[in-house]
Design brief:
GO terms for molecular function: ADP binding. Pfam families: NB-ARC, TIR, WHD_ROQ1. Residues 22-191 form the TIR domain. By secondary structure, this protein is of the alpha/beta class. Among the domains are: 11-191, 3-Layer(aba) Sandwich (Rossmann fold), CATH 3.40.50; 205-357, Rossmann fold (3-Layer(aba) Sandwich), CATH 3.40.50.300; 363-443, no CATH class; 447-513, Orthogonal Bundle (Arc Repressor Mutant, subunit A); 846-1005, no CATH class. Helix content is 34%, strand content 16%. The longest helix is centred in the first third of the chain and has 19 residues, at 145-163.
Length: 1006
């Protein structure tokens, strides 16, 4: 057998001369007799279906692969899976392969994953009893004298080494299928084959990538370090991502740490944070380091034998390099490290192998890039060509400037050519710095959008959009409209979880605008965010009325302490962020205009009564030392916070009880996650008319909720995960008429938050998501009960046209069979099972309880009727299908038939009975699926009148789709997309039909 490169090992994979040159992802080593063969076969199949390139030892030897070639295959595999069984040591081949695997582990860090199949790890490690005797007998058959002793010594050492590693024992799992799922999932995590998103318009990118790859080709030293250097916005990150995507499959481990400069003060506060990130990326295991010295030692220990690809993007100081890749001896042969930075001095100091300087884009590429972003096409319209070229000339070939200006100018209609000319004239002939190019876009904003942009870039990057919008609305900025405008003009992006993000250049530009107004007098600036400036202002008490926002984020170990009097003159302060800041003195000096208070690690047991918060919209005091929010005021008139909508006290481990909510009449979100001392929720919570979210996750001391909480008519999201002591009754929870999301995850049967999920909860017209992962309450008919509740013609009419999703993992008691008896009005049910065995069990129950028992009968052609949904050339299709069915009825065999169609290749699979099974063709794009039924019935009865449901079973993904369409025989587009989303290339599928009484026998095909 000849070795063939994987699909990913194309021309881009041949540049690395360093060994090893990986061809395979996984090598499976097993042997002996038939013990474990079924497991290995299943594992091999699932790995291949998961697109993991895999070799199995015995299989390939039987095909004629020489043992030497097999050893070579081990050396070019990233992962070795060893399946130990009682007869393992009876195979010389297995032991030789094991010896090679341990050698690869010790030379280049090959990942080794042992699996014990019906044998104790100690038996393998110590080679005692029958296992050890078989080892000696195998050695005697192959070696004599001194060679025998050497072989035994080597094999014993290899067995001991492998048996001492982290492993899986099949006895720890319900069945082989569960073990295979765990192994495959772990392998996929280790391989992590996911391309990074590069850019929407990769203009001029390919030639640059080839140049850098050429640099790597010419440096085949033990460790190759490449620097990519250039000014901001030149595309360093983009080219690094493109190179990463081209070559990452050739390495045993990889890491891409993006935008280090941006996150240095936010996420990576110390070198230790960066080191932990790198170790986690490569090893897929979280480490907790005590200091950076320990991190450097661990990097050297774990990486010294591994061939890695590491990309450090936008490095801002040499210490980051020193602590991540300060010594080439830390890494194995063939490692490639790519560093992008604005500072060439760091690269020279590190003595990289090659520095690639990012040149400006040429005029043609610049024009094309601007055109894509401005006009959505490669070239501008003829009448705008000159104007576009003038803008390009002023951008200096900087990709980011072209992108931002293109997105901005796209808002101007083509017909307003004069306005385009005006914009072009406003662009200076030469900009010295990127932010000057970008500021022209900023100047085009209205005053309201400018204020919102400056607030976001200084305080709200990474914050949820709705949260920031409400706060800025509270400042009178109409952020609903303003943020939309900024998103449309590409100043702000909304990323995952609806969070606001911004390119670092735009952020820097906005912050520079606030700094440049008063470069020498920080106290007179509108927004204070620079760490040292803020500390100096607070120490010198030099703040002024001009200050609208202030942010000071200290580390939790900080000992800095300031006086509250420092805020005395900041009368206009509306945005305040203080992380782990100690403040002493009279809190009455703080501004009465505050709309946002974000004070992580608030140091006091209570909020002082003289801290005026009457205008505050959002109060975020996570990780605080609060025991109570406020002490009872001396007067009988407590401070009423009319505007407060968000209250987040998460992780406040000393908090004992909530405040009296009568002083928070506008509250919309109450987040008390992980408040482990919280024992009491004030009954006044029931008076909150606008409260739509309550998060009590992991409030482990909370034993009950006031009955008033169930009077909340506006509550949409209720999270109780980890609240082990709470008992909720059916009559309580059904009162939450607006409830959309209920989460009670990871609870136990005897102490679950919701003792029994009431069927009547779904009587709500708005219920959309119920998460019960880990729910083990006594009622095992929860989901069928919910379905029955939905069946009522007066209940939840929208559910009739919506698919219903069910997760059967971690719950073996649920029975799906009753579903079909109440499925008259639900169109689609999608079920996710934990294993193929469980899936098959459910399918069997449904068929036994809900299908007819078909009686055998001889079929004549006069009884044949066809139900067809034809696609393509009708006559050719129908005639070929007719002949195929006739031939299939005359034969007991199933045949594949090619059907004509309009540019679509057709494959036909035939099945006898009420199902047809097939494997989705590899690398195929299935356009249509047609189910043809051949049946015998009593006169006047059509199959379409008797069809109850279609079951599509995906054994590979352990998913079951139940489709009920009544007399409709064609599946609509929405459901078709749902079907295809669950049918992947190479997956094993079976389709079942269930009919009412009247049909005596049927055949079907697709």
């Amino acid at each position: 057998m000849e070795f063939a490169s994987s699909s990913s090992s194309s021309s881009s994979s041949s540049f690395l001369k360093s060994e090893p040159h990986f061809i395979y992802d996984v090598f499976i080593n097993f042997g002996g007799e038939d013990i474990g063969r079924k497991l290995v076969s299943h594992l091999h199949s699932v790995l291949l279906q998961a697109q993991v390139k895999t070799l199995v030892n015995e299989e390939n030897l039987q095909e004629g692969m020489k043992l030497e070639e097999h050893m070579g295959a081990i050396a070019v595999s990233k992962i070795a899976i060893i399946v130990f069984s009682k007869t393992y040591t009876e195979s010389t081949c297995c032991l030789l392969e094991l010896e090679k695997i341990i050698e690869c582990l010790e030379t280049f860090g090959q990942v080794v994953l042992p699996v014990f199949y019906e044998i104790e790890p100690l038996d393998v490690r110590d080679q005692k009893d029958d296992f050890g005797k078989a080892l000696e007998e195998t050695a005697k058959k192959s070696y004599l004298g001194e060679q025998l002793e050497h072989a035994l010594s080597r094999w014993r050492r290899a067995l001991t080494t492998a048996a001492s590693m982290t492993s899986w024992d099949v006895r720890d799992f319900r069945d082989d299928a569960e073990l295979v799922e765990v192994i495959v999932r772990h392998v996929q995590t280790l391989l992590d084959y996911k391309d990074l998103f590069i850019t929407e318009f990769p203009v001029g990118l390919e030639s640059r990538v080839e140049k850098v790859i050429g640099c790597i080709k010419n440096h085949d030293t033990k460790v190759c370090i490449i620097g990519i250097w250039g000014m901001v916005g030149t595309g360093k990150t983009t080219i690094a991502k493109a190179i990463y995507n081209r070559i990452y499959r050739l390495f045993i481990g990889k890491s891409f740490i993006e935008t280090i400069r941006e996150f240095w003060c936010l996420l990576y506060r110390t070198y230790v944070d960066l080191q932990e990130h790198l170790l986690d990326d490569v090893l897929k295991y979280k480490f907790e380091l005590e200091n950076d010295e320990m991190g450097r030692t661990l990097i050297k220990t774990k990486f010294s034998r591994k061939k890695l690809l590491i990309v450090l993007d936008d490095v801002s100081e040499f210490g980051q390099l020193e602590n991540l890749c300060g010594n080439r001896e830390w890494f194995g042969r063939g490692t490639v490290i790519i560093i992008t930075t604005r500072d060439a001095k760091m690269l020279n100091r590190l003595k990289v192998n090659y520095v690639y300087k990012m040149d400006d884009m040429n005029k043609n590429d610049s024009l094309e890039l601007l055109s894509w972003h401005a006009f959505g096409e490669a070239k501008p319209r003829k009448e705008l060509n000159e104007i576009a070229r003038n803008i390009v000339a002023n951008c200096g070939g900087l990709p980011l400037a072209l992108k931002v200006l293109g997105g901005w100018t796209m808002q101007i209609p083509y017909v307003q050519v004069q306005e385009w000319k005006y914009v072009s004239l406003r662009l200076p002939n030469a900009f010295a710095r990127v932010r000057e190019k970008l500021k022209i876009s900023f100047d085009g904003l209205g005053d309201m959008e400018k204020d919102i942009f400056l607030d976001v870039c200084c305080f709200f990057i990474g914050k949820e959009r709705g949260y920031a919008t409400e706060i800025l609305n509270g400042c009178g900025l109409h952020a609903d409209i303003g943020i939309t405008v900024l998103i449309e003009r590409d100043f702000i992006k909304v990323e995952r979880n609806n969070k606001l993000e911004m390119h670092p250049l735009l952020r820097d530009m906005g912050r520079e605008i606030t700094r440049r107004d008063w470069p020498q007098e920080p106290g007179k600036r509108s927004r204070l965010w620079f760490h040292e400036d803020v500390k100096d202002i607070l120490k010198t008490k030099s703040g002024t009325k001009a200050t609208q926002g202030l942010s000071l984020k200290l580390h939790s170990t900080s000992r800095d302490c300031f006086e509250a009097q420092a805020f005395k003159n900041m009368k206009s302060l509306r945005l305040l962020q203080l992380d782990h800041v100690q403040l002493t003195g009279d809190y009455g000096y703080l501004s009465k205009q505050l709309r946002w208070i974000c004070w992580k690690g608030f140091p006091s047991k209570y909020i002082p009564n003289n801290f005026c918060m009457e205008s505050v919209v959002a109060m975020d005091l996570k990780h605080s030392h609060l025991q109570l929010l406020w002490k009872q005021p001396l007067s009988n008139q407590p401070q009423v916070l009319e505007r407060l909508k968000f209250l987040n006290l998460s992780h406040s481990k000393y908090l004992r009880e909530t405040p009296d909510f009568s002083i928070l009449p506008s509250l919309e979100q109450l987040i008390l996650k992980d408040c482990r001392s919280l024992c009491n929720v004030h009954p006044s919570i029931g008076d909150l008319c606008n409260l739509f979210l309550i998060n009590l996750k992991d409030c482990t001391s909370l034993s009950c909720l006031p009955r008033e909480v169930y009077k909340l008519k506006s509550l949409r999201t209720f999270i109780l995960s980890g609240c082990f002591k709470i008992f909720i009754l059916e009559e309580d929870i059904v009162q939450l008429e607006s409830l959309i999301t209920l989460v009670t995850e990871n609870t136990v049967a005897e102490s679950t938050a919701v003792k029994q999920l009431p069927c009547s909860i779904v009587s709500s017209k708005s219920i959309g998501y119920i998460s019960l992962r880990g729910f083990e309450a006594s009622s095992h008919n929860i989901f069928p009960s919910i379905i029955r509740s939905w069946m009522s013609p007066i209940v939840n009419p929208q559910s009739y046209i919506s698919p219903y999703c069910m997760d059967m993992k971690n719950n073996n008691e649920r029975d799906l069979a009753p579903l079909l008896s109440v499925l008259a009005n639900i169109r689609t049910v999608l079920v996710q099972c934990d294993a193929e065995v469980q899936l098959s069990k459910q399918v069997k129950k449904i068929l036994v309880e809900c299908s007819v028992n078909f009686t055998e009968s001889r079929i004549s052609k006069r009884h044949l009727r066809f139900s067809l949904n034809c696609v393509g050339s009708y006559n050719d299709f129908f005639n070929t299908l007719n002949n195929s069915v006739s031939e299939g009825l005359a034969s007991s065999e199933c045949n594949d038939v090619s059907l004509p169609g309009d540019n679509y290749p057709w494959l036909v699979h035939m099945g006898e009975g009420h199902s047809v099974s097939f494997t989705v063709p590899q690398n195929s794009d299935m356009k249509r699926m047609i189910l043809c039924v051949v049946y015998l019935s009593t006169p006047g009865i059509m199959a379409t009148e008797c069809l109850r449901s279609v079951l599509i079973v995906n054994y590979t993904k352990c998913k079951l789709q139940i489709h009920n369409h009544g007399s409709v025989i064609s599946i609509n587009d929405d459901d078709w997309h749902g079907i295809m989303a669950n049918l992947g290339s190479g997956e094993k599928v079976e389709i079942f039909l269930t009919f009412d009484h009247g049909l005596v026998r049927l055949y079907d095909m697709w």
